[in-house]
Amino acid sequence: MKKFVHLHLHTEYSLLDGMCRIEEVVPLAHRYGMKSLAITDHGTMAGVIKFYNACVENGVKPILGSEMYVAPESRYEKKSDEKRSSFHLTLLVKDKDGYKNLIKLSTISYLEGFYYKPRIDKEILSQYSKGLIGLSGCLQGEIVWYLKNDNFDKAIEIAGTYSEIFGKENFYLEVMLLNLAEEKKVIPLLIELSKKTGIKLVATNDCHYIYKDDKLAHEILLCIQT
Predict the structure, then answer these.
(1) With contact defined as beta carbons under 8 Å apart, do 60 and 36 qualify?
(2) Count of other CB atoms within 10 angstroms of residue 44
(3) In this predicted model, what pLDDT tens digit does every residue of 189-198 receive, in sequence order?
(4) Contacting residues for 220 by C-beta, under 8 A, at least 6 apart
(5) What is the 3-state secondary structure (H, E, C) of 52-82?
(6) Which residues pair with 120 in a beta bridge?
(7) Stated pTM of the model
């Protein structure tokens, strides 16, 4: 029996959004028998060293990453179009090259692409994709955005672009079941897209807090943010 591993998790370093405190969530993962755990904070790598050390101390394999913001076109274009100013994309480090490239992308997102959020684009991602695994992201991802807006052909095109950037074996379509209304439409379409393109699916949970009882506190945190 294969065990589930969280590949999409937001710690307190996803400011005013993530509530999974590293010193709490990592020991809990170990207690639940999870061999590995990922960190994918919004547009930052600020927590990866603390997360890495906590994982090593608790016997959990750390998977370093970030949920990055991708500009619809160029990272230098500082305007919102009919779509949005950025889409979400989950990046996970595969090896040492991937770690160096994620650092590079994170730096560029602040120095060159910042517009409301630290952003990259597909051009710079193509240059620094070696050693990285890409997941298509949450309901704010680009592929899902086109699926939600009834443009299946464009979703296939974007999926193909990311598959070329990372290599087909290093790009996955992210499927989440969070009891959100939009998922009823999107999940069957992601499955269909997977069948048509051969891009594999991966199940994630977009963790922002640890316990069910944290839901209200998280809603208050989001209210403060917005």
Answers:
(1) yes
(2) 18
(3) 999 999 999 9
(4) none
(5) HHHHHHCCCEEEEEEEEEECCCCCCCCCCCC
(6) 70
(7) 0.95
